[in-house]
Specification:
Elements: E1 23-25, E2 28-29, E3 33-34, E4 46-48, H1 60-77, E5 84-87, H2 91-94, E6 120-122, E7 140-142, E8 148-149, E9 155-156, H3 173-179, H4 206-211, H5 214-217, H6 222-229, E10 233-236, H7 247-258, H8 267-279, H9 283-296
Parallel strand pairs: 5-10
Antiparallel strand pairs: 1-4, 2-3, 6-7, 8-9
């Protein structure tokens, strides 16, 4: 395991204490440090109590809401800079829209009479909250997948159009591939076992062929779509390499400071000490972390 430690420290894992837990999510810049307005009155920082019995866990919706707050601050106070957000390659960051193109679980043939296929998503009530079943699990509903795109840029409907005997029913991968002129590929098996195709293979099964099509590959995450609409760039770090994100070193610096404060089980002390520890991270240390990462990972 690789661990970043201070000059006078040893790489000994620190156990988590008992009692209340408080999570923090924030944005950091090599130019400005923690993201906030010049007067400090507006901030992109979010503190929340993690756990089912508390405020839950940070979801993709929470990420979008916080990122919108960050963009509002940047547009209002730093409009002359070109801003690019860098995120770890985590599921909460790269989530695509529920209706986004995805070959996974697509049936090869048109569903039988009386049934249909579509991606599933959580059922949401009018207040934006998930609807639960009697057994406590979130209720799932089928939705219609968005249209695909032919090579010439025209839309390809995945469901039979109005006027067809089975209007609104999913066509099936075989028909979708035939419509793209991929007649040989339309006869392939639906998918390799567990969707584990051979490395670099693009034509071993129907799902892999569709998965390799430009419009399927080019599907953007919700985060990318939202940021692009407002003129912001988005980059995702390679999977399992969050150490390339210098915010991790900022967290480490703050944790070291936090452990120097007297232990307390009071939530008010927890929040105060956490905030003080975060604000103690100097800008020059943030910059040193960036330069060190760039040096270590230089090709």
């Amino acid at each position: 395991m690789v661990q970043w430690v201070g000059e006078n420290q040893t790489a000994v894992p620190q156990p988590k204490g008992e009692g209340a837990s408080l999570m923090v999510v924030d944005f950091v810049s090599v130019d400005y440090g923690w993201l906030h307005s010049p007067n400090g009155e507006e901030s992109a920082r979010v503190l929340f109590k993690v756990g089912k019995s508390q405020e839950g866990y940070f979801t993709n919706d929470d990420v979008l809401k916080q990122t919108q707050q960050a963009m509002d601050i940047l547009q209002a106070h730093y409009p002359h800079d070109d801003h690019v957000f860098i995120f770890n390659n985590a599921a909460t960051h790269i989530k695509r829209p529920d209706e986004a193109l995805s070959a996974r679980n697509m049936p090869k043939f048109t569903p039988k009479e009386g049934s249909n296929w579509g991606p599933e998503t959580n059922k949401i009530d009018k207040n934006g909250k998930p609807v639960y079943r009697p057994d406590g699990k979130v209720m799932r509903i089928k939705i219609r997948m968005a249209d695909a795109t032919f090579a010439d840029g025209t839309p390809q409907q995945l469901y039979f159009p109005e006027g067809h005997p089975r209007a609104g029913v999913f066509k099936g991968m075989s028909i979708l591939l035939q419509e793209r002129g991929l007649l040989k590929e339309s006869g392939l098996k639906a998918q390799c076992k567990d969707f584990k195709c051979k490395p670099e293979s693009t034509d071993c099964c129907c799902q892999r062929v569709l998965y390799s099509q430009p419009d399927f590959i080019g599907t953007k995450s919700r985060l990318e779509i939202m940021c692009k609409q407002q003129g912001f760039g988005v980059l995702f770090l390679p999977r399992f390499h969050c150490e390339l994100n210098f915010i991790e070193q900022c967290w480490g610096y703050a944790k070291r400071i936090y452990r120097q404060y007297p232990a307390s089980s009071k939530e008010a002390d927890l929040e105060l000490n956490l905030t003080l520890a975060l604000e103690s991270v100097p800008l020059h240390s943030m910059r040193k972390c960036v330069y060190l990462i760039c040096w270590r990972w230089k090709p």
